[in-house]
């Protein structure tokens, strides 16, 4: 039992080391972190309901998971070969595409969830804002 608990603690340690590596070495992880932080603060300001928070949290997790998997793929490909191989390029490109799909989905989900309440909250603050956005 003691070994089981020790191995679980070590698995968390290794996961946090991986997270730390990605934060230190991957510029896009910083970009995702900054955007996620902004979304969380805007969500708190808008007082989003729990269901919206669940979707936002899952969406942010999806983007981070895709970015972490892409980083892992790149590291393994770099370990396997130092030469430019067409299959290595495909592996890296497809990993990057997964991040792109997750990030684009996150933008759309963010607009769908944050857009209407943000628009409702900002409309009274800016004179003629509604007229400005609805003008043809």
Structural class: mainly alpha
Judging from the principal axes of the Cα atoms, what is the shape?
flat
The percent of residues in helical segments reads over 70%
The total domain count is 1
Q: Order of helices and strands, N to C?
A: HHHHH
Any low-confidence stretches, pLDDT <50, length ≥5?
none
Largest sheet: none
What is the end-to-end distance?
A: 69 Å
Instruction: Write the CATH architecture name.
Output: Orthogonal Bundle
Number of distinct helices:
5
Strand content: under 5%
- Please write the CATH class name: Mainly Alpha
CATH third-tier fold name: Helix Hairpins
Look at the structure and give the mean pLDDT. Answer: 92
Describe this structure in words.
The chain has 136 residues and is mainly alpha-helical. The chain has a single domain (28-134), classed as Helix Hairpins. Helix content is 87%, strand content 0%. The chain has helices spanning 2-25, 27-46, 50-80, 86-122, 129-134. Helix 2 (27-46) packs antiparallel against helix 3 (50-80) and helix 3 (50-80) runs antiparallel to helix 4. The longest helix is centred in the last third of the chain and has 37 residues, at 86-122. It is flat.
């Amino acid at each position: 039992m003691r070994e089981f608990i020790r191995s679980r603690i070590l698995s968390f340690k290794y996961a946090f080391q991986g997270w730390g590596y990605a934060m230190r070495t991957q510029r896009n992880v910083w970009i995702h972190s900054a955007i996620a932080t902004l979304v969380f603060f805007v969500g708190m300001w808008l007082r989003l309901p729990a269901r919206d928070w669940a979707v936002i949290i899952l969406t942010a997790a999806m983007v981070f998971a895709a970015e972490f998997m892409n980083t892992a793929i790149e590291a393994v490909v770099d370990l396997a070969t130092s030469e430019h191989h067409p299959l290595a390029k495909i592996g890296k490109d497809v990993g990057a595409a997964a991040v792109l799909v997750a990030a684009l989905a996150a933008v759309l989900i963010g607009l769908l969830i944050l857009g209407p309440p943000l628009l409702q909250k900002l409309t009274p603050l800016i004179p003629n804002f509604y007229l400005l956005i609805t003008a043809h």
